[in-house]
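The authors assume throughout that readers already know how a fold can be written as discrete tokens. What matters is that the chain and its backbone geometry are given together, residue for residue. A single example would do more here than another paragraph of explanation. For illustration, here is how one protein appears when written out as sequence plus structure tokens.
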Amino acid sequence: MSIKNSQKRKNSEGNGIESEPPTKTIHIQCPYLDTINRHVLDFDFEKLCSVSLTRINVYACLVCGKYFQGRGTNTHAYTHSVADDHHVFLNLHTLKFYCLPDNYEVIDSSLNDIKYVLNPIFTPEQIKQLDYNTKMSRAIDGTMYMPGIVGLNNIKANDYCNVILQCLCQVRPLRNYFLREENYANVKRPPGDSSFLLVQRFGELIRKLWNPRAFKAHVSPHEMLQAVVLWSKKRFQFIKQSDPIDFLSWFLNSLHMALNGTKKPNSSIIYKSFLGHMRIYTRKLPPPDAEEAAKVDLSSEEYSEMITESPFMYLTCDLPPTPLFTDEFRENIIPQVNLYQLLSKFNGQTSKENKTYKENFLKRFEITQLPPYLILYIKRFTKNTFFVEKNPTVVNFPVKNVDFGDILTPEVKAKYNGKTVYELVGNILHDGMPEKGTYRAHVLHKPTQQWYEMQDLHVTSILPQMITLTEAYIQIYELKQD
């Protein structure tokens, strides 16, 4: 079969790119398949040509793992195949295999594992099995790993992102939604709006983390973080440490918006999983100055109690201030507090004083609706004019059977018929100095009921009793099903 000369064509931007040359007759047998080196294949990074840095028409060399553009003569992939004697290439977009420089398509079922690593696909049956699967998987270098409990690479200072992504991967409705690409493939965004890429990247990351046939026992979140840097307008970067709660708040809201979410509770998988509601009672306090306080009419509308309904994605728990002075016997004792003590802020009766520049307010918070997944943010850091201070108080919390019904009013509690018991599925903690420390995550592997500690690439099993001794910072609780 004759091969037509490859022709130049103009793309929509008007710059000349090499068009795809027609392939020769398909060869089922390729003599170079044994040169493929699966140990060097890594599809976690941006799909860019390593020479021209273009994203168009990129091929991965399956011998050395590098990315090159094009397939026709004079392209970077063609030149590489001739110069380095590497012959088998994979088109990263169409997932087709080619032999260069002969330029024929290779069809061989032994290559399906490479295709699956680049684009893992899950059927509804496989997703159902994830909650029961206790089988370990083996990476290509012999390392054993549990799908879903996989280390994330720290590029420089992105551990604050890694811990959030690890915990969100354990939220079942979120995981099940993003494992099936067709769930969000048809979401339409306005012209020129590319924020949907954030959704696609998160879906790709979750599929790679839960991939039972991965070549290596860790994943690099490089493409996911590139999307984060771009859509947060460099507010969150992987070369500079940030606060995980800021990232979590921004990330959940951005995903919600990118999935065309509205203010309605069930408008996206994000709101379905995390959205709760509370009632806030606010009353203005008279000024502390005695003379001015005497002039105040407390019965006026200005000083009457205001009630507002407010949705929430997470609850902020305030730690009691650390004691300023300790005697010689207590100097080594770290203050401790019970989780229920922190949650009493939301029982509708405990008042908390809020100070602004000019005025003081008394606020009460009453939860009116609990979400299926409840996120608690334990406020450890306080910023003043000069520095950031960390509160080292240890929070005592149960890992199982936490009844949030105890903080609800009797009327709201009656609505739930006793279904207010939650279990911890994710726990994030901070180690070290306020501005220099690192973050770790504890996640629960549901089928085995085993807890794992994850710090970037390091994954180790941990006893649940050890989790309660740490300086917990962000926690995710799951409503216990019957």
Q: What stands out?
A: Residues 1-18 have pLDDT under 50 and may be disordered.
